[in-house]
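Quick bug: Class I SAM-dependent methyltransferase output formatted oddly.
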Amino acid sequence: MTDDSYLKINRANWDARADVHVGPDGYRLDAFDDPEWISDVVAFDRPRLGDLTGLDAVHLQCHIGTDTVSLARLGARMAGLDLSPRALAHARTFAARAGVDVEFVESDVYGAVEALGPARFDLVYTGIGAICWLPDIDRWARTVAALLRPGGRLFIRDGHPVLNSLAAVVVGNEYAERDQQPDMTAPGGMSPALEFPYYTQPEYRVWCEETSYAGSTPVASPVSVEWNHSIGEILTAVLSAGLTIDTFVEHDSVPWDALPGMMTLGDDGEYRLSDRPERLPASFTLIATRPASDI
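Here's what came back:
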């Protein structure tokens, strides 16, 4: 995929999703009326984020800004970047309501350095469910490195590429005779199966989802396109961009119902496989540093 047609498709999709996500059954925006409240996503990340007080930070693919505002409440001076003008309009309204000062900038990720300036940030944060919308993981990593000051950190938690390779399939009755069986939600039961590419492919994968992961209102522009990137491709891209990997952790949970009918919501706001969750790496956290000696 060499052209930018994917941007137009995904921009329309995320414009439409943003309107759904600020609806009454979308994101829990009212919770932020409590000045101490932070999003479940950032609460999950908090033990690994460290002290953010006084850091200049940017949230790439910030959407409507719930995680961006949460990071600001932890002490960072925040900028948020997103390709969707509708999402950013909602983000500015939301941040003002929350009483948090955030610089929101419209740009796709690959234009971030031009939009924000090079070597400007102590922290580049990328939240859950983001890099699948990007065709070139190497270019993403180079962009991150260019945004960071020497000594600055990348923090990303995202859906695991194994999870992104899965689809729910109906299995035969013989499966139910085994000692360990899946959550039975259809005749014969359902089970996750590797159905989609694990490695980055030249062409995008097309989805048409009439509803979003938050909110029940139909999405006006339901088509989106994405790519999967393997763990090896992600790690190699980060290293090739000149960053040093400090932490890499895989988690058995993800903050959305990625496999409907086969996952259970926990008290921490995370979904895990109902049957033997230890089978699935559902998300990962990667922390990397631009060396202080890098000029």
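Actually, after a second look the formatting is fine. Residues 173-188 have pLDDT under 50 and may be disordered. Closing.
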